[in-house]
Amino acid sequence: MIEFGPANLRVPRWTRPVYMVAAGTTDFRKRYPERKLEELCMMAFRMLLEENDLKLDPLEVKGHINFAVYGEFADHFQDQLLCEAKVHDYLGLDPLPNVGVKTGGATGGSAMLVGANTIASGYSDCTLVLGWERMDEVKTWTGNYYIATAACKDFETRLARNYASYYAPMARRFQEMYGVDERLRAEIAVKNRGYACCSPFAQQPGRHTIEEVLQGEIVSDPLRFLECCAMSVGSSAALLCSEELAFRLSDKPARLFIAGGSHTLRTGDRRPMRIPLLPHETEEGYRWLYQEMRKQDGRWPGFESFGASRFAAYMVYRMADIQVPIEALDLVETHDAFTISDLQTYGDVGLALYGQEQEYVRSGDCYLKNPHTGAPGRCPANLSGGLLGTMHAVGATGIFQCGEVLWQLQGKYDTFHGDPESWRRYGKTKPVDWESLQVKNPRRGLAVSHAGVGSHVTCAILEKA
Amino acid sequence: MPTTTTPAGGIPRIAASRIDVVGESWILRVPRFGDEGAHFHTYGLLTPYFQGLREGRLRATCCLNPGCPVSHGAGELWLPPRADCPDCHQPMSWKEIEDPRGYVYTYTYVERGGTGLELPCPYYQIDVKIEGVCTIVKSYLSGPGPVRIGDKVKACFRTGKDATHTCLDLFWVKDSGGA
Fold first, then answer.
1. What span, in angstroms and rounded, lies between the C-alpha atoms of A108 and A448?
2. Is any Cβ of chain B less than 8 angstroms from the Cβ of A176?
């Protein structure tokens, strides 16, 4: 049993507010031989400076940058130590300071957290957060081995060398503990890959059916191919500012709150603990769950949930003064590297109570348009297409998610996804059945950045200023 | 016309790197180093665990420090073991689990693994819960399925000349009961 000391649960208190004003990204591809890594980073940086309606010229904006935070998941994919120095130089930012951040799949989110702290502390008035991954230098199954070195090399890596096989046992346990219908997981793949069809950045958009997902080849039972994200290449960027500078640069800045959590590398090492309660939850509300867990020899977070996500949500809701997440949030980007991680996350971040994640997805509230009622979903998830449909160029992912949330809050979904020119520049044609996935007047969005089997997680809230 | 200058005595012979051409880009093939590229990884203070597997013994660690705020001197076993207690930071003690048995807490059927996988696919990867152990150990099942959560299993070992000196030396078979 892990027990917190009272001071462990201190809510972060920044000394000044943090804002996000701009985002940029490349498109994402399984292989991207047309561009070198730093050239991809320049594409994201240029979009950030040039296409976000900033009120100063791009080079004047650049003249405000004090600090850069770079996200890169894996040196062995890039085969280049100190990539940060190479990118920083290539973007023309020397001799400003920069740091590299590395926390697995949550690297992008952690880079946002570190970047936010440079603003909140006063170290910087303007911080560039930029991430990348180049996963196409090796063959796919060697890439799978590389990723599986994010399992414990002494006790786990040899047991699969394929990361889906570390998520599959969670899917199995979750499924049996809560009686989940496989069709529900498949529905998540269909939804997110479907939303990706409206994104020019998307790597694997597709209009699939539940049957197609379930009939697909199995990677690691019960997970099918279409339930797993793919190797990805690309870069994304965000610009964070102090309040004063944010309003000088943008008419539509968004306030940023972000917090992190972490939990063991090996899922099986997670000793049971009491659930840290979100503001709207009560011990009484979970009495049935504890009883159910006793019956099934269950434990929290066990294989079903992510303690790191819960810890990050616990903190960020208190930072942002959010009481009831489903009422306060208008959209969410989950880390849907696998369908099961999307499902698990709804309980962790309190969009549903633990144990009711399945009912939450079934309610239709995670859609832009509730498929059962036709009314707007209460908190649409992964309108970007998510990791399943659009990208998981790992070091960029958490940054990309924040960019998509920012553009939603700014009412710019169509600007970045609907302009035929946005499709042409990546050699694509805007689909004739393209539709706007702009949420109507959103005020707040959540982005969940997630590593390993839940070793590191950040939760970022963006709020219309 | 471009010209080249060859120094007196010629240039050293260097094998050409292989390139692939995709569109207008050259893609350079960069081979690794074979045995020269091997890593040399220590098991450190966990070496007794792997030595134990080779001898058909399953060893775990536990905290016996009376001052530990969690174990109070009578901690549960850790498997995988760790040399130091995360709750009080004092060295843990080794304890052998006699006739190790447990049950399948969860599992997956691995249909394909990444480069270098030693186990022949497909196989059941299982997470085993053992009485008295505070963690759940990831391992694999030898023998046919199907497997269900709750199935009882008992430990087996790759010993002697069959040992791999890795975590693969521990595996499990279905436990039909009895001692």
1. 10
2. yes
